[in-house]
Amino acid sequence: MTKLFVRALLFTGLCGGVLLAAASCSNDHDGAGGPAAAGAGSGGASSAGFSGNDLNVGGASAPAGDAGSGGSSEPACPLYQSLCDGSCIPTSVDPDNCGACAKKCAASEVCSAGVCSGECLPGLTACQGTCADFQNDSTHCGDCDTACEAGQGCADGRCVDVVAVGPDPKQCAGGGPPIRIGDGPLDCLGTLAQTTFRWSLCSCTDLNVSAALSTDAYDSSVGPYQPGELGGGVAADRNVTNWSEAVTVGGTLWIAGSDSYSSSGPPSSVKGDLHLAGSWKASTPFTVDGAAYLGGTLSGVTVKGKTTPVTAVAPACDCTPDKLIPIAAIVKAHQADNEDAAIGLDPAVFEKPGAPLRLDLPCGNFYLTAIDVSLALTIHVHGRAALYVAGDVAASSSLAFTLEPDAELDLFVAGTLKASDTFVFGSPNYPALSRAYIGGSAKIALSDDVRLGGELYAASSEQLVWSAKNAIYGSIFAGNFRSSDVTNIHYDRGVLRAGDKCPPDPHECGSCEDCHNQACKNGVCGECGADSDCCSPLVCIGGSCQPQIVVVK
User: What global pTM score does this model have?
Assistant: First the structure.
């Protein structure tokens, strides 16, 4: 049995002894005999989803011991950790407990995403049994053998002065409690992430494919990235333009615009299902491995699964005004509601500092007026932390947001993101733990040495242009997306469990998002009976909404 198939079994169900992963126990794809495209596209009896207008934006922390999301009992340890001898330890990176307690890696191996391996993912280097970031790791700064002295930390591969802060608050034991920004069903930041980042790429308006685009997926809570796994869906709420380069979608392709589209150039393929409101004409090979739900017609497109006509394809990205995350309001609420004073953090510390710096943050809520740096800056997180920035994040030198494997980072920026040099966010070994929410409307151009190992939300941005040379480990949610250079997105399905330590599903609901991506039926969270009960692109498998990682033709 191959490694890929073993991982697929994690999300599969058995129907009369037959293995199914893209359908529940019925003859049709969605388990109810009807195509998901004909439904709301975001599940439930109501098309209403996360309501930014109703979001409570004051800070709060969930008490330790809350049940995990999905209505099941709480896992003993957070994602990427295991209970060993009574303590939760990060088995995702520990060479003495790699993926499980007491599982030791060989001397020539490293522990990468909970698997003993002979190599590390891009941006990381093998060092003493682990995969180290020599640019930002204070114990391995610049090389494997250099540790920064007391009062210094690593930024851009050099030991620099650290921003002095007080001791960790008492509540930071074990990483601290899950952070909440209110009392609603999506106000726990882990739940917000798992309901927001369901697609490898989601565009509120257009998807401009002016360069080659490829998506696939992996689950970083199970093991490191391996090419070709499914679950990396792509969606555009309006149109597709400039499809003249090779495109491979490692999951569902969902286009809500009703125009007529065309593709040319190298062959393209969709490894999952196609949901298309309009028509498509392909002048070169275009293959859909799964089913097709069509509002128009196809020409030159080969569909290996069943083709079903639909009257409409609803938008799949949560981009209506009532669903957009109110980032500016969230940041403003934390101007006073934060732990800056408790640790002695000056909120203006990064407004044009005169030297390269490093900040090590404990758990909690922290507020900055802006980040405007021309010298190297690394912000490293050691617990569950949320960072709120009132202005822009602008850097003309190296800028990095990194974290420990047992930490989480949610970055809320009321302004925009401007990075003209090396920009690092998160880690490819655990992208689900790093989430950035950009609230400004200005164009965001990410080029040169950008290393994204997390989730990036910029739904209000005029356009997000990706021309960086590195692959994306995580996902992008953009107002308008354009690939101007080869773009490879490796979606981390682990983000769909980011809310495991958050409060459980509420009893009452108005959408699948309220149920943490599970079905909302007749105003109550419960089991799904069809794909249309689920938040797209999830599908109904044995009563549970799961990513589609095996295609049933």
Answer: 0.88
